[in-house]
Amino acid sequence: MRVTINQIKEMKQKGEKITMLTAYDYSTAKIVDEAGIPLILVGDSLGMVVLGYESTIPVTMEEMLHHTKAVVRGAKQAMVIGDMPFMTYHISVDDALYNAAQFIQDGGAQAIKLEGGVTVAEKVSRIVECGIPVMGHIGLTPQSMYQLGGFKVRGKTLEAATKLLEDAQALEQAGAFAIVLETVPAQLAALITQRISIPTIGIGAGIGCDGQVQIINDILGSFTDFIPKHAKQYTRLTDIIRAAVTEYDNEVKSGSFPTDQQSFSMDESILAELKAKY
Ligand code: KIV
Questions:
Q1: Is the pTM of this model over 0.85?
Q2: Residue 17 lies in domain
Q3: In contact, 167 and 146? CB cutoff 8 Å
Q4: Number of domains in the chain
Q5: Which residue's CA is the nearest one to ligand 1's atom 5?
Q6: Is residue 55 predicted with pLDDT exceeding 90?
Q7: Which among 21, 105, 141, 221 could disulfide-bond with 233, CB atoms 3.0 to 4.6 Å apart, if both were Cys?
Q8: One domain, residues 36 and 16
Q9: Are 162 and 263 in a shared domain?
Q10: Are residue 11 and residue 146 in the same domain, yes or no?
């Protein structure tokens, strides 16, 4: 049985911390799922850490669905959340609903995530009304990076902090089951967490959130174009991969790979017959 939104909401009530990680492919999703992580986000960070785009803006529905399907095949227990890409929920409520449904019906996800607060509340409400669980995302919302002026901390002034609180309340009222708080002061994230009944999942938002999310490539040290302040590297896969690739290259060049162990053989008499003919 997969993790449900009610279980996630109950975790807040019981004071149990909620762990969420991104994944973009079958094998990684399988490992994350087997580790018992309850929430897997197929983030549009896909664009940067997997597809090599400079931002999340070029990511398309087609790309998101392709990777969501792979993650769903790998994760058997976790709730898989599909991240709605830029401009797939902005034009109209109908458009937002149609694209959200694509994640569930075609992608096989159990929930969707979208960025924004008060401005997307009507869309969240309609999507939830149609039976699709929605996770909100406020604070630093990378799809609005040009409007926000880059990847800066959000909510430091009274006005900005008030707006974030109101955004969180609007999402809660619209029926979101949880909200990602990205790059906001820890004190503000803790206050928002106290003021709403649904779980907050922080990334660069301090210890006072109900849960935490990280981009898997950041914690594994497999994406090193830049390392955000909010990321902690638990290992450095780039070093491990580089060492393995170099060793393989050296062995191929020196003739020590492959050995008999990685090779297949045929009957000597068939070989002799073949040699006699050609
Ligand atoms: O796209 C993503 O990975 C995200 C997380 C940073 C929450 O939105």
A1: yes
A2: 5-235
A3: no
A4: 2
A5: 43
A6: yes
A7: 221
A8: yes
A9: no
A10: yes
